Amino acid sequence: MCGIFGVIPSKNWSNQNNLLKTIISNLFLLSSSRGKDASGIAVLTDTEIRINKLPFSPKVLINSSEYQNLLNTQKIKAVFGHARMETNGSFSEDCNNQPVVNNNIITIHNGIIVNDEHLWNINEDLRRNFQVDTEILNSLFSKYLQHGYTILNSTRKIFKQIEGAASIGNMFSEYPYILLATNTGSMYYLSDLEGSFFIFASEKYFLSRILDKYFGNYEVNIYQVSPQSGLIINYESLEIIKFNLLSIKSDNFPIEKVGTRSKRILINGKLFKKNINLKVIPKRVVLSRSASEVHKLILKEYQRNTDFIMKLKRCGRCLLPETMPFITYDQKGVCNYCKSYKKKSLLGIEKLNIDLQSIRKIKDRPNCIVAFSGGRDSSYSLHYIKEVLQLNPLAFSYDWGMLTDLGRRNQSRMTSRLGVEHILVSADIQKKRKYIHQNVLAWLKKPHLGTIPLFMAGDKQYFYFANKVKQENQIDKVIMGENYYEKTIFKNGFAGIKQTKTGFMAYDVPSIYKLKMLFFYAGQFLNNPSYLNGSLVDSTSAFLSYFMIPHDYINLFDYIKWNEEEVNSVLDIYNWERATDTDTTWRIGDGTAAFYNFIYFTVAGFTELDTFLSNQIREGDISREIALEKLTRYNFPRLNSIEWYCQTIDIDFEESIRKIITIPKLYNHLL
After folding, report:
1. 253 and 314 belong to one structural domain
2. Which of 27, 37, 40, 669 has the fewest CB atoms within 10 Å, i.e. the most exposed one?
3. What's residue 284's pLDDT?
């Protein structure tokens, strides 16, 4: 999830301090593509480990005087860096940011430990101090070292217990070693034949940039730390010991201490003392009375509207109501969408193997990119591509700030169990959330169902970054898991765009319709100048990325049939996490969906779940009766998710809901 890196210079680099500082700063900026919420650096010397971390992007940290002072330290033995994307623990509290320090161990971690709560519970002798999941790694390392385990065997023991993605780097105040380990392969390093330096980073591309810029005339190679493996590096001699995390062989690797006294640790200029003045995390979050009252308000509105929504005229074959844009019914009560629908014609597994034949020859590196949101279909796709097709995928995600912790945990589960490297490109999440804040407030001033997609505009650069990652890693094929049931053409329909090619994705419209869409939004912006805010450039970029970039990807479900029961049963193998506030598994990791579906249901009387189930009916995968029963459950408002959304984009929960429920309904004739 985050970006980690490190540099170990040899004694020969004693006169290369400027080069060292330049390389570290460049690695920081490159790593910031994986996280911009917080940043931290650890500098190890003969006598101490000095750490500086800030709740700001690496760019801010690099420009700070504290950072410059750290890198001006003489006789640097090793440097760690971390660019954080916030997951467990608020980045506003430095104790949750990385490097994480506890029990004289300094850790940087890329990934999410999804069973950290369980590990704390079964290790009652350990005391938790932070919210960040990485702390459990520190505490377990300390415990096992104190019980006589070696560094290597401690590492193996920990990785057998943890669930979720973990690519870690450890410094020890008592031992002259750097430990690197990964269960996904999201770690690369470069070193010359003479052993004059050692540099590691989360992505191969970062190191290739450093290699081209600073070591073009040297014989230097980039190596991957393979999934389920690691390295122990002596920072005095740069001797490297490689190991397998899954091995059961006993380890005779000696533990050498740095001396009679451990190195002292300073964090942001203050001496670190074990477990002193640390904030104990709260055990339970209690719903505030005001939030509870808003939940009641939402439920009251839902119950009131449902009585009328169920009276809407609906297609006799599918579920689409009369409020669906451009809908008409024939004399038998069948809608035009059903009459023009063509069942999905699959290309078949043989055709898929033919189309993938060229990349099967690539054995020594990832041979395809899998678009991986952590959602239901992309998780299944990653499984299918790795386990069934036996390809070597690289998982790619774009996090724009509305991926929930549940979605991130599922990403972590899948990549760790499959041993798949995961490249996550992180937007400037705080800025993205500010843009959503501005657009939602603008929308609430003059609501229009056609402009709701502006709430999700920030995720559309996904396609731009997918192509960028493809080029950076020199990979030819990008595979997606776009489910052909997920066609929400009503979103364009409310903007006055009639999508005639039913069954295609929202971006698959003729150029004339794209032009009409631009005119529609231009008119809305003129009618509501609140849209002319800081998000305008970002929204324009999103439009270009979504509608103008060629989508020349392989879609897995163009070849094989999507089967909901099979998808869910496979995900259960990976302990894939379900949402607690809905029965459906669709879009539960998308923090925006609960909010906009509440609006669509309240105002139009249907949601994207109506269109999804209707497509399942048309394909013959489900009866109308079963679909209608599911719809009643699926459209129930996701109270906690709606509240999370309002809190995350910093809009008033109660005020927003009260505004939404006053919007004129498309089914007013029934009220």
Report:
1. no
2. 669
3. 43
Q: Which helix (H) or strand (E) holds 188?
A: strand 188-192
Asked if residue 231 and residue 153 are part of one domain, the reply reads yes
3-class secondary structure, 317: coil
Contact 75, 10 (CB under 8 A): no
Q: Which of 98, 89, 91, 94 is nearest to 40 (CA)?
A: 98
Average pLDDT score over residue span 382-402? 96
Tell me how crowded residue 443 is: count the other CB atoms within 10 A of its CB. 23
Q: What are the tokens at 485?
A: 């049931």
Residue 174, burial from CB neighbour count under 10 angstroms (0-12, 13-18, 19+): middle
Nearest 5 degrees, angle CA 333-CA 337-CA 340?
Answer: 105
Cβ proximity of 6 and 78 under 8 Å? yes
CA distance 187 to 110: 9
560 vs 47, which has greater pLDDT? 560
Rounded to whole angstroms, how far apart are CA atoms 107 and 92? 19
Q: In 3D, which of 236, 259, 263 has the Cα closest to residue 78?
A: 236
Alpha helices by DSSP H, 135-202:
135-146, 151-161
The DSSP secondary-structure symbol of 84 reads E
CA gap 75, 55 in Å, rounded: 28
Q: Do both 255 and 372 map to the same domain?
A: no
Mean pLDDT across the stretch 142-160? 91
Task: Give the range of the structural domain holding residue 203, as residue numbers without chain letter.
Answer: 3-271
pLDDT class for 452, splitting at 50, 70, 90? Answer: very high
Residue 278, in any domain of the structure: no
Residue of 453, 455, 465 lying closest to 372 (CA atoms): 465
Cα separation of 485 and 9, whole Å?
54
pLDDT given for residue 517 in this prediction: 85
